[in-house]
From TrEMBL:
Keywords: Membrane, Transferase, Transmembrane, Transmembrane helix. GO terms for molecular function: phosphotransferase activity, for other substituted phosphate groups. GO terms for cellular component: membrane. This is Sugar transferase. It comes from the Bacteria. It holds the Pfam family Bac_transf. It is a multi-pass membrane protein. It comes from Microbacterium saccharophilum.
Length: 479
């Protein structure tokens, strides 16, 4: 029990500290806006007969109270769903909307013209700073030894195979979405091991409710495998009053939320999954985005190309650019264009290095490849060697965002599932690049590519482009 009390104390302190920091950020942003508003605008034209200082104090108090209180409540609800990035941002945006609504009510009833100033200053500044503080705290907590103490305490229940799969998926996420305290399986074992880590068996599926109360479990995840069709309903009844959430794990992996809809009929819950679309209209929208981004990107690329070219020629003899045959959409071959990062004999020398291959699956990769030049190592680290590929995008051979463009020799080893990567144009960047690049296993790379192929959207492409800029500044897995 002392361990649980310590954990609850840590959680309360963390939430209280976050609430105080959030409220302070909101108050400062609102106060700065009110001050600027008073200084730059004639008071009489803004507040009428009211005291300008009184108006400023009231509006700051209203924004701080409405935004801070709603954010604390919404953040508490999001905590119950884990600690993913989506549940960090949505409470901030939702609570900001509530604060603006409160200001609109004040302006409508009192006749004070204060909403435009807070819309243009407090809202963007507050959201930006709140997101920044979230990222800072997350970075600190991820490397802190008490990280798991702040995540929802989770119990996974089901047959052994399903439980292992769910635990493996939960622990593979570095964002500590859940802290798996134990598992409930039949078989009488004391511990099950998943990828080398042992998880305590705290009971059987029939004793989950009792164990959840004893261990202060916040989330029970049903991994499936029960022979009783009413098991989930009975479990939800037994968890009443236990302050515990119930989550049903499904095998609908890598399906975007926008493709899933739920419907309830008599005694049955139906899950609708939309089939991926690869029609001409959606591909045309992607092509328009590619052309716009490529045209914008090629302007600064044209400026820095002479500098990079000079460095490459001064470092080692040979050409500036490197061309190689790759496979594009529907299996069509094209010539990819990159800045040269290896010696001119790199292709010939590869055979002698095959035994030292560190790549995943059919990929050939070496962290300390002797063929890479000094300038090439820098270009690769910051992904600058791929900048000429924007010309491939403009030509229509590639997309800005998409799966990694494979070599013909790699495609010959693809099975039917992996061939789905060729349903869309390969990309300069993609989920594989912002998720670790060469540090990923072959299975992880394929899964990310297939997830993108089946769930891509213009909004997804824009989000990946923005995250790519962050990865280029803080590279990981690039060699």
């Amino acid at each position: 029990m002392p361990v649980l009390e310590k954990r609850l104390t840590q959680v309360r302190r963390h939430r209280a500290g976050t609430t105080v920091l959030d409220t302070l950020v909101i108050a400062v942003c609102a106060a700065v806006t009110a001050t600027v508003h008073l200084v730059t605008t004639e008071a009489a034209s803004v507040v009428g007969v009211a005291d300008p200082l009184l108006v400023a104090v009231v509006t700051v108090a209203a924004v701080t109270t409405a935004w801070g209180a709603s954010l604390a409540l919404l953040r508490g609800a999001s905590h119950r769903h884990g600690s993913g990035e989506r549940y960090e941002l949505l409470p901030i945006l939702h609570s900001a909307t509530i604060a603006i609504a409160a200001l609109a009510i004040i302006e409508g009833t009192a006749g004070w013209t204060v909403l435009p100033a807070h819309l243009s200053l407090t809202l963007p500044a507050g959201v930006a700073v709140l997101v920044g503080t979230r990222l800072g705290r997350r970075s600190r907590l991820t490397s802190h030894r008490t990280t798991h103490a702040l995540a929802p305490r989770t119990l996974v229940v089901g047959d052994r195979g399903c439980v292992e799969q769910v635990v493996r998926s939960l622990t593979a996420d570095p964002r500590f979405a859940h802290h798996v305290v134990g598992v409930a399986v039949n078989g009488g074992e004391d511990t099950i091991r998943v990828d080398g880590t042992g998880y305590r068996v705290v009971g059987s599926p029939d004793t989950v409710a009792e164990r959840a109360r004893e261990l202060c479990i916040e989330t029970v995840i049903v991994a499936g495998g029960s022979d009783d069709p009413d098991y989930v309903r009975k479990l939800s009844w037994s968890l009443e009053g236990a302050a515990t959430d119930l989550i049903l794990a499904t095998r609908l992996a890598d399906v975007a939320r926008s493709r899933i809809a739920f419907e309830r009929t008599d005694g049955l819950a139906l899950t609708h999954v939309s089939i991926p679309r690869f029609d001409q209209s959606t591909l045309s929208a992607k092509r328009v985005l590619d052309v716009v981004v490529a045209l914008v990107a090629l302007v600064p690329i044209a400026v820095i190309t002479p500098i990079i070219a000079l460095l490459i020629r001064m470092d080692t003899p040979g050409g500036v650019f490197f061309r190689q045959r790759r496979i594009g959409r529907d299996g069509r071959e094209f010539s990819i264009l990159k800045f040269r990062t290896m010696t001119t004999t790199a292709e010939r020398d590869r055979a002698a290095l095959e035994a030292q291959n560190e790549g995943a699956g059919p990929l050939f990769k070496m962290k300390n490849d002797p063929r890479v030049t000094r300038v090439g190592a820098v270009l690769r680290r910051f992904s600058l060697d791929e900048l000429p590929q924007f010309w491939n995008v403009l030509r229509g051979d590639m997309s800005v965002v998409g799966p990694r463009p494979p070599l013909p020799s790699e495609v010959r080893d693809y099975d039917e599932q992996v061939l789905r990567r060729l349903y869309v144009q390969p990309g300069i960047t993609g989920l594989w690049q912002i998720s670790g690049r060469s540090d990923l296993s072959w299975e992880q790379s394929v899964r990310l590519d297939l997830h993108y192929v089946e769930n891509w959207s213009v909004a997804t492409d824009l989000r990946i482009i923005l995250r790519t800029a962050q990865v280029m500044v803080r590279p990981k897995g690039a060699y």
